[in-house]
UniProtKB/TrEMBL annotation:
Record-given protein name: Uncharacterized protein
Location of the region described as Disordered in the Swiss-Prot/TrEMBL record: 28-68
Basic and acidic residues: compositionally biased ranges: 45-57
Length: 110
């Protein structure tokens, strides 16, 4: 495919029809706002500062992470780390439940 066939190359790379690439290209040239039809309204409020136009990703959501536990002493950190390494060495599948069971056994031993 020749380099001059920009829309055809873009449609093939994005796996969309040439008509969709042409429509979006025309909208950008006319200065229309681009948005995804499945995008929630409150997520459309952040403009793209560099280009002066809004560009959106469909259904993009931020992952809410839980805050890590930071008030754990060094002895406990070392014991947890050691248990994980031991489980890894023994080729056990490490999950939160299996780690908790292993740590409980360590506490019971003494």
């Amino acid at each position: 495919m020749p380099l001059s066939a920009v829309r055809e190359r873009a449609s093939k790379a994005l796996s969309v029809r040439i008509a969709a690439v042409s429509r979006i290209s025309t909208d950008v040239k006319k200065g229309k706002e681009l948005h995804s039809p499945n995008k929630r309204k409150h997520q459309r409020e952040k403009p793209d500062v560099k280009k002066g136009k809004e560009l959106h990703s469909p259904n993009k959501r931020k992952h809410q992470r839980e805050k890590p536990v930071v008030d754990i002493d060094d002895f406990a950190k070392c014991a947890i780390r050691s248990a994980v390494y031991d489980m890894y060495r023994d080729k056990q599948h490490i999950t939160l439940q299996s780690l908790a069971a292993t740590l409980q056994k360590l506490v019971e031993k003494g």
